[in-house]
Amino acid sequence: MFKFFKRVKTVVGSEMNAMLDKAEDPVKMLDQFMRDMENDIREAESAVAKQIANEKMLKRKYDDAQALADKRMQQAEKAIEAGNEDLARRALEDKKNHQEQAEQLKASWERAQTDASNLREKLDEMKKEYQEMKLKKDSLKARAESAKTRTKMNRTMSSIGGDESRQGFERMEEKVMQYEAEADTSDDLSSEARSIDDEFEEMNKKDDVDDELQALKRKMNKE
């Protein structure tokens, strides 16, 4: 029943460290340990309740036996007063039997009382240990969750800029640079094409003016 304390020491000792070193989930294992402790406490509470009930039963039987022994003593005294010695003798004989039973029951009751007291103390110790383990479990769970979160974050951060992601970014950067180069080349070609067209257009404009000038001079006979 009270192997509980050994189990508690195991939880907080080397086996806890071994558990954390293995692939077992510490959070789930801690919850399981707490459930085991709760079961032990329920069993201990049941044992204490039975022992208390046994103590009360023995106390009641002792009280009844002692009360009957006292009653027979009183009856023996009355029988003596009434001059009935034979009745007094029989009352004393019965009183002796009940007194012996009462003494035996008293010894049993006192042992049961001591056992019940010891069991209650152990149960209180178990509950105290349980509360301490519960606080420690909450702390360990928080630490485990924090460690897992940090590990996950570190892995995520280490993957950023990793080979696949970095190569992808580099490819996209090269494409953007290629687009920019193509755009610059297109601007240069467009600018060059516009310059040639502008020169031909300007030349055509001059030819038109010269033609118009000659026509005007002919009209005015100024040639």
Automatic annotation (TrEMBL):
Q: Which domain of life is it from?
A: Bacteria
Among InterPro entries, the record links this protein to: PspA_VIPP1
> What spans are recorded as compositionally biased (Basic and acidic residues)?
134-148, 163-177, 194-208
Entry keyword annotation includes Iron = no
UniProt keyword terms in alphabetical order: Coiled coil
Q: Which family does it belong to?
A: Belongs to the PspA/Vipp/IM30 family.
- The name on file for this protein is PspA/IM30 family protein
Organism name: Halobacillus litoralis
